[in-house]
Specification:
The chain is built from 9 helices and no strands.
Length: about 200
């Protein structure tokens, strides 16, 4: 059981570490919200979405998604459209007058955006369902449960820590210049990802 838990933890950590749309969004919300508590909707939504994907992967839905061409194509198309929309919104978003609050979004938009970058992100879905789902096949019973819980724990701890790091950055950068640069970088990554997904779709 311990070995399965460690495997799940290290595997999920390796998948969640790379810079991506989901991570950037959570970090940004931690940075631009007036208080850390205001970023909790984004944190909870992203963590819950990851939990859902991990559970679905472990119970075997990965077989359906990975074997269905049309499902993969629909996911790619939705991901492309959303990434373009988010890229434009992020590029235009900027702190002004020395305050980060102008770039903050409401809890409702946080939930919508966090759910979208989690559930409409083909890379996240393929990583979670493909890698975690496949790896879980080597376990059964209590070992599979330990593996699953460890994977889920990584998401919850990571997103909370990411938002906290964003909050710390926001406090150090009252003028907002760093956040403007981060928003531009985020938008470029989103556009580049959209182009890559478009090439895959074609």
């Amino acid at each position: 059981m311990f070995t399965a838990a460690i495997h799940g933890f290290t595997l999920a950590l390796g998948l969640i570490l790379p810079l991506g749309v989901q991570n950037i969004f959570i970090f940004n919300q931690g940075a631009v919200q007036p208080r850390f508590s205001k970023a909790i909707p984004a944190i909870l939504t992203a963590a819950l979405c990851d939990t859902l994907l991990i559970v679905l992967a472990v119970v075997g839905i990965s077989v359906i998604v990975l074997s269905s061409t049309w499902v993969s194509s629909v996911l790619l198309l939705l991901g492309i459209v959303f990434l373009i929309y988010m890229g434009i919104a992020t590029w235009k978003s900027k702190p002004s007058n020395g305050s980060n609050n102008n770039a903050a979004i409401s809890w409702k938009k946080q939930i919508i955006f966090a759910a979208s970058v989690s559930l409409l992100n083909p890379h996240a879905i393929m990583d979670t369902i493909g890698v975690i789902g496949t790896s879980s096949l080597t376990y059964s019973g209590i070992n599979k449960i330990a593996f699953t819980i460890s994977c889920i724990a990584v998401s919850w701890l990571w997103f909370a820590g990411l938002a906290a790091a964003g909050r710390f950055t926001g406090l150090l950068n009252r003028g907002g210049r760093l956040l403007v640069m981060l928003n531009k970088l985020s938008a470029v990554i989103m556009f580049a990802t959209a182009v890559y997904l478009t090439l895959r779709l074609l």
